[in-house]
Write the structure tokens for this entry.
Amino acid sequence: MAKAGERKGASGQGGRAARFQPGEKAKDFKGTILKLFGYLKPYKWQIAVVVLTAILSTVFSIVSPAILGKATDVVVRGITGGRIDYRTLQVILMVLLAMYLAAWAFGTLQAWVMAIISQKVIYTLRDGISKKLDKLPLRYFDRVPYGEVQSRMVNDIETINQTLTASITQMITAVVTLTGIVAMMISISITMTVTALLVIPASMAVIRIVVSKSQKHFKSQQDFLGKVNGHVEEMYSGHDIIKAFNREEISEEIFDEYNDSLCDAAWKSQFLSGLMMPLTMFIGNLAYVLVCFLGGYLALKGRISIGQIQAFIQYVRSFNQPVQQVANITNQLQSTAAAAERVFELLDEEEETDEVNTGKEDEAKTGVKAETNGETAVEAAGEAMDEEKAEMKDEENGEATAYTADKAVTGTPGKIRDLTPDVDGDVSFDRVSFSYIEGEPVIKNFSFEAKAGQRVAIVGPTGAGKTTIVKLLMRYYELDSGSIYVDGQDISTMSRHELRSKFGMVLQDTWLNSNSIRENIRYGRPEATDEEVEAAAHAAHVDHFIRTLPGGYDMQINEEATNISTGQKQLLTIARAILADAPILILDEATSSVDTRTERIIQKAMGTLMEGRTGFIIAHRLSTIKDADHILVLDHGDIVEQGSHRELLAKGGFYAKLYYSQFAS
């Protein structure tokens, strides 16, 4: 069982997470932070508003202690003089209240604007990752665990979100507050200000030491969090297999190993970062004590008033707060840099090779063409709901016919439709070679030509390269050498959208999303009507089963699609391919998960659907491809035999041995 972070894909390479080592530091802290802040450039005017409101809010907060000091002096003079000037005191207190309200209003506006900016930046990052994942080659997913990708998109993005939402505004406020407080302190007493500022070098030294120690642990924390997520996702998706092989204890041991490493890195990073606040507070309190003694001495000398001492002490207290904020923000930036670096690594991954023909106009034409073709066979595919009638009709008329279902509810036969698509469907391989790992070819100098309308079966032992041929045809991977042509056009000169719109595919591994059954079938052609969806279900012989479910076509499939059987999932994917109505069909063990009777019914439905279409059928059960027009027998990436079923059996070669081995007693 592969560990999360070490899962091997088709490339045979370990997961990318395995390259992260515990204690590894961010490669470029400064560059990563600058790159992250670069995402704020489009919002420079909003940032200006944040800075302005932060300054105004801070100014009102900073001036308030000085005003309060004047109120204190009025009270002190009144007590010593025998009469308090309540009118002056009232004016001072009203001004003070107005300042507090203004500080609150500007602070609220600052937080509101910054929240908008941060969410837009996070939206851009999430959108960028989502689009990036669509552009990454399959090689990337072969070597990177799904949980690792999940961790970068969820956990790392959320870490960045917290920094942008809170830390930036705190940093702006802290800088403005420190500047304003120092200015107000100097206006009261230069001597006391110098004494108070002695804490800055000491605090900065402490912060520097703690940051240098904690940064590596924050990086390890993010890395092991990705490994834990990857392992949990892997174990949850395969929980039935784990139980079947009694591997729960081993799974728990692997999880404990990752969890222990995560816990160790997390507590070290949190402990070290937690030291900054008490240490800076301790240093700040020392300065506070010195200021109190010095202020008392200056007051006795008559060089400063009691109200000024009170205001100065408030400034000293307020001075410690932004220093602590800077310490906390510096700590947060370490975690943010580690998270942002991982996000940018994903965004900087090499994408699929550039497409020669990617213009929107061409894609639009392709979409129109696919839509036009899509209206052709779905209705006709409903004929498969009554194979007996269809076969009798074929015998009488000597031609392929099909019926559509009127709303697919009553099963009433509809009008006859021509199943022949607009494109030809010629496919040819010209000296194609390919390898997942450099120097270890899987396909070697492969050449073959499939004529439009032919049914080509690809057979061979496990690892012979059958599925790889299909992946190359769909351009999931780029060729090492050679060319593949569809209707005479090199697929490397076609946009992937245009190329893949020509194919319908049913794989052995079914994939359904957590949506209704109707929408899962409609996934093959989003613009299809409900009638066409139900006709496609009829053709795949899944309509009756669907109607027995609670909610019928509107029943929701759960996240793991465990509320329907494996065979039923396969039938739904077949209905989806029928609805897509592509000119070239790829069936990769499409009937492997259904019983023999259902398989025969599906074979008939597929036979009707494939009239006039090119079909590539990958099969291990050779009895299912006896009617193929041409059979390719692969072994270690080479065509060792080819011909019809009867011709290959007559040769008594590799295919015959494979075929008879499946029926040996």
Observations:
- Confidence is low (pLDDT under 50) at residues 1-25, 357-421.
- The first strand starts at residue 427 and ends at 434.
